[in-house]
Amino acid sequence: MRKNIIITGLPHCGKSTLLKKIISDIEKGKSKQSSFGLVTTEILEKPHRRIGFKMGFIENERNSRATEIITLKEWKNKPGLKNIGSYGVNLNIIAEICQAVHLNYEHLDFIPKILYLDEIGPMQVDVPEFQNLTEEFLDSEKVTLMTMASCYYHNSEQHPFVTKLKKREDVRIIELYDHNREETEEGILELIDRIQKEKIKK
Description:
The structure is a single chain. This protein has 202 residues and is an alpha/beta fold. The chain has one domain (4-201): Rossmann fold. 37% of the residues lie in helices and 28% in strands. It contains 6 helices and 9 strands; from the N terminus they run βαβββββαβαβααβα. It has helices at 15-27, 91-106, 128-139, 150-154, 160-166, 181-201; strands at residues 4-9, 35-46, 49-56, 68-72, 82-84, 87-89, 114-120, 143-149, 171-175. It has a 9-stranded mixed beta sheet, sandwiched between helices. Helix 1 packs across helix 6 (181-201) and helix 2 runs parallel beside helix 3 (128-139).
């Protein structure tokens, strides 16, 4: 059963926003939390002027755990960091966050029905702890929702880890475009519901 869903699409097409909206819809009206995961969020200095990214849990009324800054433009060429595009990326912080999420996952006080991870991209994919967390989620019995940078999905010279993920028989790739956002959201929610019902039957 292909119970793992990966959303891909061009930059700024709304992959992360869609994932968060889907998780919000799933949690709506529930008395107990039913999802768990990790998201990467833009840091904006002004509207539409991105200066970096932070990584952590989705912050909502149930979850106010802080996020950590993983990259900033002003960190570029800083000793000990990795330059990716116009950013300097702290791979050690990404590793620490992924380790923390792994430990949290092992000691949750609730049973999640869905796991999420945003995103499989150039800033994260070289970190072994991120790869381990990704595979841990995919290998679980839970429905998993992830996002992937389209530059990785379509690139002929793919990162070996991305190639490995695409070869998995339990993964569905869904491409997001500007014109199909609403239909994609509805389709993914229906797909998650169908997968969960199939799991119950088994």
